[in-house]
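Whether sequence alone determines local backbone shape is best considered at the level of individual chains. In the encoding step, the backbone of a single protein was reduced to a row of integers, each denoting a local shape. For completeness, the protein is quoted in full, as a sequence line and a line of structure tokens.
***
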Amino acid sequence: MVSLSNGIVERLFAFHQLNLGKQRLKSFGLKSSTILNSLKGVDYLKNHPNEARFLDLKVTFADDSIAGIFCVIGGSDT
């Protein structure tokens, strides 16, 4: 799972939703993980769009063990 638009996932109310999503994927027999910068927070992702957001997407596409990419939050940056 990547957070290409906003780092809000690390906030308590959204982190709960992330965990629900992980549980749902597990119920389908899938393993999930959050990529490098996804949980670093709103300010970090806002201030490091190239270093953080693009790197996360690049890493997911380069990793042959990843079968699917889910954006944990949408938005204009995604």
In short: The mean pLDDT is 83. Residues 12-27 form the longest helix (16 residues).
